[in-house]
Amino acid sequence: MDNQPIHEDIFDVILKVVLIGDSGVGKSNLLSRYTRNEFNLESKSTIGVEFATRSIKIDGKQVKAQIWDTAGQERFRAITNTYYRGAVGALLVYDVSKLSTYEHVAQWLKELRDQGDSGLIILLVGNKSDLVDQRAVTTEEGRTFAEENGLKFIETSAMNASNVDDAFTTILTESYRYVSNKPLHNDMDTDSKTDSKVKLGQGPSNGPKKNPLQEKCCK
Predict the structure, then answer these.
(1) What is the pTM assigned to this prediction?
(2) For residue 70, what are the domain limits?
(3) Domain count of the chain?
(4) Which of 132, 150, 173, 176 is deepest in the core (most CB within 10 A)?
């Protein structure tokens, strides 16, 4: 595959991807590891929503990913779930060392499918796979849940960077191919609901105030 990072500030496609899951599962570190190759052991919980960008090449096209990291705390739920709209991909993250975060995955999935756009590509991510001695959720349990619910599945470690690039490459590649092929099936479709989807070259209509990571993280 030719999905290598690019450095030019020129792109053919913008894709919006969201990170969701309980607080403390490592969403922010997954984002910083992927976009800046950084990991912060003392990372604090996200307040509201943050986002960063990275550009890669997929199928010969330069793709700019806008990756939104949503807060996992209940008190921010009304704010963060509005950012599901327009997303073409989602990483649903749990902590393999905390059973409760895995048990909440079904609730997050329901919310994502209720609030998100149809056709959303979802990757279930079991993070913190480096905590071998503290594992509370087996790989097979995660894979089985994903298969039963039509999700893709991977385990990652933001700390040692294991599978982090693979996780984002998977969601971006699958999302790009879905979006780029979609017009072929909708040429005769006049359903107004298609207007709400993110299309090639289109970013989110409204976002929060700029985050310091927004432009610094681009590779």
Answers:
(1) 0.76
(2) 13-182
(3) 1
(4) 176
